[in-house]
Write a structure and sequence with these properties.
The protein is of the alpha+beta class and 629 residues long. Helices cover 34% and strands 13% of the residues. The strands form three sheets. Strands 2, 5, 6, 7, 8, 12, 13 and 14 form an eight-stranded mixed sheet that branches. The chain has a four-stranded antiparallel sheet with strand order 9-4-1-16. The chain has a three-stranded mixed sheet with strand order 3-10-11, with no helix packed on it. A hairpin with a 2-residue loop joins strand 5 and strand 6. Helix 16 crosses helix 17. The two termini are 18 Å apart. The N terminus and C terminus are likely disordered. The chain binds a DNA duplex (24 and 24 nucleotides) through helix 4, strand 3 and helix 14. One of its GO terms (biological process) is positive regulation of transcription by RNA polymerase II. This is Eomesodermin. It comes from Gopherus evgoodei.
Length: 629
DNA sequence: ACGCTCGCATCAGGTGGGAAACGG
DNA sequence: CCGTTTCCCACCTGATGCGAGCGT
């Protein structure tokens, strides 16, 4: 039942769209910038704006919305360049109250702390509702699927009267959830929901089109996920890394949509990193207030616009500063040591950016379990730290042996990197995913050669359809595999859009992506964990890792991963056992880390990285692709 | 002379590390 | 006392501004 209930609830909640204030100038922004190729620009632009502001002022504050504004780049699309400043906040953003959050929203995934989660294959894959289990209701009672995203008053409430049915109303509740009875936090609200279905657009039907979403940098996410992703939160806000980046298909090209990310509690627990692994310790604080929604700066915009290129949320910042919610539409307020699950919401709106209150089916939600993370103020797991260093361009300074030449390092690492990058560049970049064909990338990855590899390597793309995913966090292995199946994938392949290459994120361009893909990765990193076990042993992480991958795959990865890594690579570091410290400028040594870590063997991640890179090179597409049923 | 391209310098901002501060 | 949070640091990326060089 739960399933159904959940779905309903979720759907409902989802359905309940946010309300967009008229002011939404959305129209302007929203204008399809057809021509404008670059979404990137948007991201770029802000600097100046941001700059305007004192350091603290983040783009977000500045109103990332129009990154380009002011800058030379301006709005490529022709969008109106708004001055930086709050005023500039994207209409959409404004519309969605950030704060919405109800304290109690959990998106629960797995019941148990780790084990459960992990164990469940589903963690990563959507799984049948039935499987899911546990959704936790918030103590508060409020359950909402969306909860988080919707502010009681905000989003949902305001919103659509029509949707009041869902609960909304004034915010009181989260509609759906409640109604539904079931668990509130079901991860995949929309989808199934009763409304769900209804809510979900019918394929083909205009508004109702059912969208499909790919998690572009899924491989990278998986790497982190294996170790239990951690995201730093700071007062001034810290960007996510990996950041959320999606490709969307299946939208009505002419319809307008608002796209935003909501971050909700993934479980009702408070977590602590102990003994080299994450363990629960007490209950989560559901009363945390603060903005939980980040509206994509380009919202609202047309379906064609959203489908044209990768949609990334690289500027999204995470903070623990509750006071930042008002002004910072770019910041999502989280609580340290709590586990969160990002959700992507796509809401069809009018050209003006106003949601159609009468049609609750216009909201679709997508959840990628592999994007779950624990918010921390300081990294706990050195594996994560190393992954961040290895893949985040801004952290290059912390790489061992980082040399401008990069080549200098004997290790495979660097040498490899360039290579892959290049490939990346050549291959991927081409479109950075899409170029010529957006699809393809995918395609490549998906089908062919890679397929084989995929086993070892994560699939390139994961496509998700609206919430529908029953399982919350967990990925359904079956699904997983299935998805790989050509059939599944093909669809995408079909779609070829002339995309621009623009990488969604200005930052982390190639490198990043590459990194995402695993290109850049170098490999080694130390772990803090005493246990030293690869993720397998870890409580939580392990689960993750496995969750998403089919067992076989997992095995392979596991074995291969650590092993495969070219010794050389690590060796580089390895020398380091002692060196490590020295070499690593500031690396934190993990107790357990032993030389092993440094040892030649690469960690799975590393491996993966390479694998990914390989994959990427081939097809590139690392996208998580979920389809709802 | 004018316009365009390229390269360098500068600035803003992001990153993790480490130590200090804080709080239970 | 211990765990968590905050602040500052050095390092790096990316964007922008400016000037030099080159072609028309």
């Amino acid at each position: 039942m739960q399933l159904g209930e959940q779905l309903l609830g979720s759907a409902a909640s989802l359905a309940g769209p946010p309300f967009y204030p008229p002011e939404s100038s959305g129209g302007q922004r929203g204008q399809p910038s057809s021509g404008s190729p670059q979404r990137l620009d948007l991201d770029k632009g802000p600097k100046k704006c941001g700059g305007a502001g004192p350091g603290m002022l983040s783009e977000a504050e500045a109103g990332e919305p129009f990154p380009g504004a002011g800058s030379k780049q301006g709005a490529p699309d022709g969008r109106k360049a708004a001055p930086c400043g709050e005023a500039e906040l994207p209409p959409a953003a404004a519309r969605y109250p950030l704060d919405s959050l109800s304290p109690e929203r959990y998106y629960l995934q797995s019941p148990g702390p780790q084990g459960a989660e992990l164990g469940a294959p589903c963690s990563l894959f959507p799984y049948p509702a039935a499987q899911h289990g546990s959704v936790y209701q918030a103590p508060g009672g409020a359950r909402y699927p969306y909860g988080s995203m919707l502010a009681p008053g905000g989003f949902s409430a305001a919103v659509c009267p029509g949707r009041a049915q869902f609960g909304g109303g004034g915010g009181g509740g989260y509609q759906y959830g409640q109604g539904a009875a079931g668990p509130l936090y079901s991860p995949y609200p929309a989808a199934g929901s009763c409304a769900g279905l209804g809510a979900l657009a019918v394929p083909g039907s205009g508004p109702g089109l059912r969208a499909q979403v790919f998690l572009c940098n899924r491989p990278l996410w998986l790497k982190f996920h294996r170790h239990q992703t951690e995201m730093i939160i700071t007062k001034q806000g810290r960007r996510m890394f990996p950041f959320l980046s999606f490709n969307i298909t299946g939208l009505n090209p002419t319809a307008h949509y608002n796209v935003f990310v909501e971050v909700v509690l993934a479980d009702p627990n408070h977590w602590r990193f102990q003994g080299g692994k994450w363990v629960t310790c007490g209950k989560a604080d559901n009363n945390m207030q603060g903005n939980k929604v980040y509206v994509h700066p380009e919202s609202p915009n047309t379906g064609s616009h959203w489908m044209r290129q990768e949609i990334s949320f690289g500027k999204l910042k995470l903070t623990n500063n509750k006071g930042a919610n008002n002004n910072n539409t770019q910041m999502i307020v989280l609580q340290s040591l709590h586990k969160y699950q990002p959700r992507l919401h796509i809401v069809e709106v009018t050209e003006d950016g106003v949601e159609d209150l009468n049609d609750s089916s216009k909201t679709q939600t997508f959840i990628f379990p592999e994007t779950q993370f624990i918010a921390v103020t300081a990294y706990q797991n050195t594996d994560i730290t190393q992954l961040k260093i290895d893949h985040n361009p801004f952290a290059k300074g912390f790489r061992d042996n980082y040399d401008s030449s990069h080549q200098i390092v004997p290790g495979a690492r660097y040498s490899v990197q360039p290579f892959f990058q290049e490939q990346f560049v050549n291959n991927l970049p081409p479109a950075r995913f899409y170029n010529g064909e957006r699809t393809v990338p995918q395609t490549n990855g998906l089908l062919s050669p890679q397929q084989n590899e995929e086993v070892a390597n994560p699939p390139q793309r994961w496509f998700v359809t609206p919430v529908q995913q029953p399982g919350t966090n967990k990925l359904d292995m079956n699904s997983y595999e299935t998805e790989y199946s050509p059939s599944t994938l093909l669809p995408y392949g079909i779609k070829s859009l002339p995309l621009q290459t623009s990488h969604a994120l200005g930052y982390y361009p190639d490198p990043t992506f590459s990194s995402m893909a695993g290109w850049g990765s170098r490999g080694s990193y130390q772990r803090k964990m005493a246990t030293g076990l690869p993720w397998t042993s870890r409580t939580s992480p392990p689960a993750f890792s496995e969750d998403h991958l089919p067992k076989e795959k997992v095995k392979e990865e596991i074995s291969s991963s650590w092993i495969e890594t070219p010794p050389s690579i690590k060796s580089l570091d390895s020398n380091d056992s002692g060196i490590y410290t020295s070499a690593c400028k500031r690396r934190r040594l993990s107790p357990s880390t032993s030389s092993n870590e440094n040892s030649p063997t690469m960690k799975c991640e590393d491996m993966n990285a390479e694998d990914y890179s390989k994959d990427t090179s081939k097809g590139m597409g690392y996208y998580a692709f979920y389809t709802t049923t």
